From TrEMBL:
GO terms for cellular component: membrane. This is Short-chain dehydrogenase/reductase. It is an enzyme of class 1 (oxidoreductase). InterPro entries: CBR1-like, NAD(P)-bd_dom_sf, SDR_fam. Its EC number is 1.1.1.-.
Length: 316
């Protein structure tokens, strides 16, 4: 893409963001508002950044939000700020990498609320900045971003309350995890094809891919493994999450009965947060927008197993 092409693309994107900014000011109609003050939304890793803003926007729309953080004091501080705005927000400690913590949280949710209606999996880590591409913390990144989120989904699915509108799971992901991205993709065409085809897609395939990568990291051979070249560990963790979202959507669609659960993922963009060292080009309000929009979509407009950015579906 030449200089003029990049300028046109930038202009189109800026125009799209302006449109979305306007849409955020348009109130939902009574027909569109399927939720009430009794609707319970859980947002993980919500003491700051995108998670905090997602929690805030959901609460502004009238949902009751359970705001979680690994550190209870930070969850309490964030909740206190939102409660000062008159919002219905409740703090809870939760570490998605700790099976005991997740089980304790699920038990508390059952006792406190009887279940939930919306789960936003925002908790995640990335230890690289700028042009860095270290894999020093690769195991932690994958343990958190993929396996921790997967643990949350599997544990909370039985607690998602049935309704005519369907429960919703929103996974905060990244375009860096696209299997067929133009500049940051897995170079092995067979692996890419197997990840994209329903008939070959499986959790075992994901486990094998991540195990191979971590093994190469341990042996110092990962740079020649054909993995994404930008934020490699983070990109692979989000690729696994994206693929797992599709796989879970397919399983949920096969359920009998009316207990519908919709699961999707989205890329918030390059947002000015601590994770990006405040170097992003979007505000947290802009970054949170698509996730909130997905969580609140009217049932006639919602899909499952899709990937979104800036309120539009994009390719995996």
């Amino acid at each position: 893409m030449g200089k003029k092409g990049k300028e046109r693309a930038r202009e189109r994107r800026e125009q799209r963001l302006q449109e979305i900014s306007h849409l955020r000011t348009v109130p939902y109609s009574p027909h569109e508002r399927w939720w009430s003050k009794e609707t319970v939304a859980v947002v993980t890793g919500a003491n700051r950044g995108i998670g905090y803003e997602i929690a805030r926007q959901l609460a502004v729309h009238g949902l009751h939000v359970v705001l979680t953080s690994r550190d209870f004091d930070r969850a309490l501080g964030a909740t206190t700020n939102l409660q000062a705005e008159g919002l219905s927000v409740q703090p809870c400690q939760l570490d998605i990498t700790d099976a005991g913590s997740v089980m304790s949280f699920a038990s508390w949710i059952q006792l406190e609320h009887g279940g939930i209606d919306v789960l936003v999996n925002n908790a995640g880590v990335n230890f690289n900045r700028g042009a860095d591409n270290s894999v020093e913390f690769a195991e932690i990144v994958i343990k958190t971003n993929y396996y921790g989120t997967k643990r949350m989904i599997e544990t909370m699915l039985p607690l998602m309350r049935p309704s005519s509108f369907g429960a919703r799971i929103v996974n905060v992901s990244s375009r860096l995890g696209r299997a067929n991205g133009r500049r940051n993709k897995i170079s092995d065409p067979t692996l890419r094809e197997n990840l994209m085809k329903d008939e070959t897609l499986s959790e075992e395939l994901l486990d094998e891919m991540l195990t191979n990568f971590l093994s190469q990291v341990n042996y110092g051979a990962w740079q020649n493994g054909g993995w994404p070249q930008m934020y490699t560990d983070y990109s692979l963790s989000k690729l696994a999450l994206n693929v797992y979202t599709r796989l879970t959507a397919r399983r949920l669609a096969e359920r009998l009965g009316t207990h519908r659960v919709y699961i999707n993922c989205f890329c918030p963009g390059w947002v000015k947060t601590q994770m990006t060292n405040w170097e992003g080009n979007m505000s947290t309000e802009e970054g949170a927008d698509t996730g909130v929009w997905m969580a609140l979509l009217p049932v006639e407009n919602i899909s499952s197993g899709s990937f979104y950015a800036e309120r539009r579906e994009i390719d995996f």
